[in-house]
Amino acid sequence: MFEARLTQGRLLKQVLEAIKDLVTDANFDCAATGFSLQAMDSSHVSLVSLMLRSDGFDHFRCDRSLSMGMNLNNVAKMLKCAGNDDIITMKAEDSGDTVTFMFESQNQERISDFELKLMDIDSEQLGIPDTEYAATVRMPSGEFQRICKDLSSIGDTVIISVTKDGVKFSTNGDIGSANITCRQNTAVDKQEEQTVIDLNEPVQLTFALRYLNSFAKATPLSTSVILSMSKELPVVVEYRIAEIGHIKYYLAPKIEDEEMEENDG
Amino acid sequence: MFEARLTQGRLLKQVLEAIKDLVTDANFDCAATGFSLQAMDSSHVSLVSLMLRSDGFDHFRCDRSLSMGMNLNNVAKMLKCAGNDDIITMKAEDSGDTVTFMFESQNQERISDFELKLMDIDSEQLGIPDTEYAATVRMPSGEFQRICKDLSSIGDTVIISVTKDGVKFSTNGDIGSANITCRQNTAVDKQEEQTVIDLNEPVQLTFALRYLNSFAKATPLSTSVILSMSKELPVVVEYRIAEIGHIKYYLAPKIEDEEMEENDG
Amino acid sequence: MFEARLTQGRLLKQVLEAIKDLVTDANFDCAATGFSLQAMDSSHVSLVSLMLRSDGFDHFRCDRSLSMGMNLNNVAKMLKCAGNDDIITMKAEDSGDTVTFMFESQNQERISDFELKLMDIDSEQLGIPDTEYAATVRMPSGEFQRICKDLSSIGDTVIISVTKDGVKFSTNGDIGSANITCRQNTAVDKQEEQTVIDLNEPVQLTFALRYLNSFAKATPLSTSVILSMSKELPVVVEYRIAEIGHIKYYLAPKIEDEEMEENDG
Prior knowledge:
By secondary structure, chain A is α+β, with helices and mostly antiparallel strands. The first copy, chain A, has five helices and 18 strands. In chain A, the strands form three sheets. In chain A, strands 6-2-3-4-18-17-16-10-14 form a nine-stranded antiparallel β-sheet. In chain A, strands 5-1-7-8-9 form a five-stranded antiparallel β-sheet, with helices on one face. Chain A has a four-stranded antiparallel β-sheet with strand order 13-12-11-15. Chain A is elongated, with a radius of gyration of 20 Å. Chains A, B, C: This is DNA sliding clamp PCNA.
């Protein structure tokens, strides 16, 4: 039996919005440690990893580890029917073929249960090695979202360059080019407005903007985003979800040969 | 000569929005008692009945009963040009072929008149017998609208079950099933937030969600909706319009044979 | 070298939104007097004329007159990437083939530069004679915008009639007809809510609504619009941009033969 109750049901709604455009079908893994998901996007280019720790739920019970295959669009459809202030409880039998989402309004006057059919999904869990990164940038998540969106109107890829003074996002397209520079800024009082750079060595990597735009759908989950980068390694785009977990996206940088091929195509 | 003046012109705008998706062309009936309309929807499945009593208007004159055929989309187009705070006056000659909508801004600085060509529409007035219903539910109209919309993302039909404790809305679809229960709740101070059940005997009926969604377009007209149901009889979905009248929708329940046919098709 | 800095960067964004739907490609002219543009719309029916005076900028330098050909949609794309409170600086070399738009956030923490490729565009400057007009109407720009939009739902052309008491906008269409009258009104305190008519002789002219709707895209630039009209002359629809300049649209009236041809077509 699996049962997990979250007073801040809105978090679950936002989590689904943050991954459903990237991943179509995926297994959610329930274990004593928490509720998690790891999946490649449908074009097998990026990876998303979600962890909601059991201690972050208001009630969490998982007698036996379970892997529940779901179509994320269908989950999102059901969670859209929860009010933003509803309490959400997820429930599943150990050997059942459904998962139930229960929504309670705060005054208990409306109670809904939505039962979703589970599906069998093949998946393999990838081991992601813990790495020390050459550069880490923490910046307002809304700023990162807007930069990715703005640059997408000019070009398809972004070059992210981190130095000790700031982080520069650059693109190139048919109509011209663009550079947006955010300076390191730790002076403001509010942590969520800070741009903080932790640098071992300067790094410059190129990424496809459309994946970063998909990752930025997680913006409502956190006021800050953390970008971790090293030469030739996938960037990690991380959103921490207050007191319960995180969602991390991994995307390999483009290397020059790839870019050339793309331009030929 | 027909002339009717309504200070709260916004009501007329909302009335049109509440019926124009259901009915394409219809006759508005003007009589000494008021301004009314009765029409089947274009697929002849549901019926809408509007009554605006003459005493609810700020000025009302109707020398001779008139039946004025209008395309409701065209009426809605014209009424959209009235400001929300405009005073609206409708005018027609006894044997004319147009109706005029006059809009006055509150400071009288802008005056508009929109003249619509009338059309000949065949229609027969159905007699709707007054019935005692097995169950009546009064609930917040916004809640009803949201439930119908939410369930439509899962299934095509809704089973409405009323007991003395509450009303349950259930659906079934390819991806799973859903139940939403609203408990009877007369404790809250504001009448418009109450859910009140008046029960002679428990009733359970099945309806096509798409019609209920159309009916729910009347939500801005009233904070409450009243559902009246009896076994094998059409449900009445009623929105009372403060101090002037009402709009009532009638929809026959689905019976099992019908459902089977649909599933076969 | 051309360089122009505008603290109220939002004005430039709004200017582009006001002309990009009407004009595809156009030359911006930089001179010691200011930054200007004059262009016919793509169907060669209306003319738009923009003037931003050099003294309205916070910094303005123009060593040599320049004519810079740009695709207005591409300029608009870039300016959309400026925040509403950003300071915008335009820069170009005398013989370069690009223009740079630089955006600075108010706290200087984000600096963006967008470089647009220039294009060669043939254009001829039309001399517009200064004329005394038979009638001038100053009215709230939002009111004018709404009237043009409302009448477009009924007909394709508008007859504007100015008398000493007010201005009347009329249209005719398949479903009926409409008249909207705005009375002269100089009593209200706020100049931007006034409707003021300056009349030498009554005038009545017919225009295509779709051009007026395009002109009304300039509404965010000014609380008032000024319509200047004389018999058989193009109307001037003018939006004054506080302390820096104006945008003027010219549109020839329809004459009866034209209308007939249209109705035949």
